[in-house]
């Protein structure tokens, strides 16, 4: 209950006593999937985005060099936790700026909590980061499972998609997505006609899609991720599901997935993103710089990594120190206005609140150039997109 006041007091005391920059360097770390299933949506792209932020800031803060360390956690939580502990203890890393994947992220979150060090997340989705497992030193920056389900389901129902059927991955992640989306659909006057649960890593979606077609639901919600989502969308195209008048809504999709699927199969799909490269002049300018380096457009997690690194460095500059409590106080007090977010803010639970966007994937005939994949359907303001504090179980939130 008194965590915010305690953090402020600690920040003031630490700022008065600590040297401006510990070890004469500000050292940041990224614990990513560099070679596995999340490599395309985090990996080299997220590392490049962080590097761009450091260069754009000038390469130094408070007159000291900014260093960046990157490691591959191989999608193993124990490796991620061990690396975080090593970095904080022996490498003197000041902040870990992303961890790919929810399980590794939660493992690193606990190390950061123990060490009273800053950790910021743009890649993982679990809402527990700002809910029951929230920490005074952690920030969930780009998206979470609650915002994805809420934005897609809410906006889709408001656009007329009242009846839903789910294809759900049969494990905790899929169950949570389906449950969250179901609550939103019903709260906004829609109905759920049924669901089919499939094993992780399914290669044959025929029986599940036949059940979805038979339901005659307007919307087929995909409560899965990665290869399962890609395979389901490709199979739905082959079955003619969307040509029959039904629409598909992806609850966790990146632009990289659409690029892999292709517009022939993905056309008409609705999905939620925190960022799209072709939104305005600012997003296009930054994304073109990113594209020049990697020959692909950035996704929301990669854009979020850039924005969060820049925000962290601005907070260090404003605080006059890299001491964690003082920097976090600044991060929570300073608004975020850049190509990624307008009037973004970090709440007491560590949630960075910003607008989320519902998109529809274009038909091939509507796409004018490579990576021209989305048309905007609706914008959901941040205070509607993310879990309200009144529903939070974060112990830092005053009730």
TrEMBL record:
The superkingdom listed in its UniProt entry is Bacteria
| Signal peptide range | 1-18
Output the InterPro entries linked to this UniProt entry. Answer: BCAA_transport (IPR051010), Leu-bd (IPR028081), Peripla_BP_I (IPR028082)
Q: Which UniProt keywords apply?
A: Signal
Task: Identify the residues that the record assigns to the Leucine-binding protein domain, covering every copy.
Answer: 26-362
Q: Which CDD domains match?
A: PBP1_SBP-like
**Residues spanning the membrane:** none
Q: Does the keyword Signal belong to this entry?
A: yes
Task: Cite the Pfam families for this sequence.
Answer: Peripla_BP_6
Family assignment?
Answer: Belongs to the leucine-binding protein family.
Name-wise, this protein is ABC transporter periplasmic protein
Q: Which organism is it from?
A: Achromobacter arsenitoxydans SY8
